[in-house]
DNA sequence: TTGTAGGCGTTATCAC
DNA sequence: GTGATAACGCCTACAA
């Protein structure tokens, strides 16, 4: 029943606990060859497995990190998480993933929970609404890395993409293709990424001398969005091009267009911020702004790893470029 | 620096550690109202956070479970994992996901690792090649649930789908649609699911009086598969219908057909075992055999939860039906 | 080289 | 109602 403890091994091998401990920690520099063998045999015979919990308590290191994802429904999140997990597996860490569901309260509870569990560090896709909590951790020197969204006014490690620039270029490409009626759909502007994307849109429009028409900008929850789209496409001069602010918006848009009988690439052109899996399988002329998820995850994990291992570094923001395909 | 311990709180509040402990565990039945307030205040003032590791050591319960996925590349795995995670979040458990990468050695290491970390139970998508290890855990009474693939000869909880039946029906539907040249592509037959699916294919073919032609059955790794497909479609009588044994095979097949210029639903009909995300977005006439991932994950998590909480039950296999869409 | 003792932060068991 | 005290299983000086 997995009750074999170090003491048992010690007794079985006829040595003391400390000796066994030394053995386990590979400090057998000054250890008799025969004691080593005795211990090995005893471990084998008893089927002993060290207890990491006990070790962690003593060492104050759990080899676990927490990942708090703002919303797991975004495909990007899972991609980045997976990259982080891969990095962890290569560095003897285990990751615990939590989904904050875009709820700051939930995020807060998870942060506290994971810290109570003594995880060695946290990678957070922030809801951006727990600034004091974030700040507190950073002041303490607790290892934290923010991903995807940036937390303003906070000198912390973060890994993001150039939302504004990418969107700006995307809208420019619409314009270059002759579009004049360009709409923009996004979820509520409560996080930096969405705001930046909208700014990119506006910049490009203004620069091209096109009017920014409020009725062409949908800002609503996924639930409400279909209704808003209905309104948008009921205008006497409906848009010929649409920018979807992220993957979930995109899904909603596609469903809407399908129901409406509008053909993508024909009746309306589409650019999406975010990649979706197997996008290449649906041969429709849609452009996706792909963020380098793997690189971002890797970088975030690496930054966290270094903090955990006390590699001194100034907090930095890493901005990755996105690519339109 | 997060060094506030229970002793500090006790001192600050002018009570003993035990009292604080009682308070934390909500056993304030026989506790003075004012002590309660004093402790509350002290906790607040010090910013105390209990240390779960220490608690776990004492209670021999970590509130963590491990999920060992045979191969995270299968979309089904991630779907099921997510369902498990959801269940865990509702039951105060944390899940740690590990990817065995179809490697029995890796699987073994993870099992040992997670047990060393004292996780309360394990949900395993087995590689099926560590039978002794599985058997050992079960004999010990350690909570384990197998998912997706079954482990023969083992009396354990498991949650699977009716691979043979579903495939059988799928092939029947091909036949009903007039197909005679039906091919079957699958990864190496080293796990039960694949074997069962092939059996289903053979049964349907035999029953319909159609010959089982070895050259119509591709059994190969993903890497080799394109070459095999090339051969298959170079036959003087190439197949008019193809059954893809899982999602990864499907992706390979689609790429191949695309390169070859063959149109799905026109030159060749396709049925795929497994769902892929956003399948509804690609309006091609492909049938997917969808496994009820969420239900399977939920069930698995529930079975594990009950074992952890010593709800006595006989080991059972739950076989979920799949649906073709 | 190996053993002894104390401590990591909690919880559990009793006395008080 | 509250408080010593002994575990939990391991690590780490330091002593032998």
UniProtKB/TrEMBL annotation, chains A, B:
<keyword id="KW-0804">Transcription</keyword>
<keyword id="KW-0238">DNA-binding</keyword>
<dbReference type="InterPro" id="IPR001761">
    <property type="entry name" value="Peripla_BP/Lac1_sug-bd_dom"/>
</dbReference>
<dbReference type="InterPro" id="IPR010982">
    <property type="entry name" value="Lambda_DNA-bd_dom_sf"/>
</dbReference>
<dbReference type="InterPro" id="IPR000843">
    <property type="entry name" value="HTH_LacI"/>
</dbReference>
<dbReference type="Pfam" id="PF00532">
    <property type="entry name" value="Peripla_BP_1"/>
</dbReference>
<keyword id="KW-0678">Repressor</keyword>
<protein>
    <submittedName>
        <fullName>LacI family transcriptional regulator</fullName>
    </submittedName>
</protein>
<dbReference type="InterPro" id="IPR028082">
    <property type="entry name" value="Peripla_BP_I"/>
</dbReference>
<dbReference type="GO" id="GO:0000976">
    <property type="term" value="F:transcription cis-regulatory region binding"/>
</dbReference>
<feature type="domain" description="HTH lacI-type">
    <location>
        <begin position="4"/>
        <end position="59"/>
    </location>
</feature>
<keyword id="KW-0805">Transcription regulation</keyword>
<dbReference type="Pfam" id="PF00356">
    <property type="entry name" value="LacI"/>
</dbReference>
<dbReference type="GO" id="GO:0003700">
    <property type="term" value="F:DNA-binding transcription factor activity"/>
</dbReference>
């Amino acid at each position: 029943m997995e009750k074999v403890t170090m003491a048992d091994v010690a007794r079985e091998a006829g040595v003391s606990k400390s000796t066994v401990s030394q053995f386990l920690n590979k400090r057998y520099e000054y250890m008799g060859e025969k004691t080593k063998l005795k211990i090995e045999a005893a471990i084998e015979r008893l089927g002993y497995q060290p207890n990491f919990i006990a070790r962690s308590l003593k060492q104050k290191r759990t080899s676990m990190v927490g990942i708090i994802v703002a919303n797991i429904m975004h495909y990007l999140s899972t991609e980045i998480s997976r990259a982080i997990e891969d990095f962890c597996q290569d560095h003897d860490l285990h990751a615990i993933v939590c989904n904050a569901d875009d709820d700051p309260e939930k995020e807060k509870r998870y942060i506290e929970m994971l810290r109570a569990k003594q995880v060695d560090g946290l990678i957070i896709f922030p809801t951006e609404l727990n600034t004091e909590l974030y700040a507190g951790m950073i002041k303490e020197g607790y290892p934290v890395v923010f991903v995807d969204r940036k937390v303003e006014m906070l000198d912390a490690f973060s890994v993001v993409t150039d939302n504004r620039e990418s969107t700006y270029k995307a809208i420019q490409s619409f314009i270059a293709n002759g579009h004049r009626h360009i709409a923009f759909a996004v979820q509520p502007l409560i996080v930096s990424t969405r705001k930046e994307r909208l700014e990119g849109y506006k910049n490009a429009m203004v620069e091209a001398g096109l009017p920014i028409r409020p009725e062409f900008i949908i800002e609503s929850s996924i639930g409400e969005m279909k209704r808003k789209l209905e309104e948008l496409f009921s205008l006497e001069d409906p848009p010929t091009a649409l920018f979807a602010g992220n993957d979930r918006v995109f899904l909603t848009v596609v469903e809407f267009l399908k129901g409406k009988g509008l053909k993508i690439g024909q009746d309306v052109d589409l650019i999406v911020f975010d990649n979706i899996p197997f996008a290449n399988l649906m041969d429709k002329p849609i452009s996706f702004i792909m963020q380098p998820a793997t690189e971002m995850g890797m970088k975030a994990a690496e930054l966290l790893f270094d903090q955990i291992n006390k590699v001194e570094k100034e907090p930095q923001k890493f901005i990755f470029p996105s690519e339109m395909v």
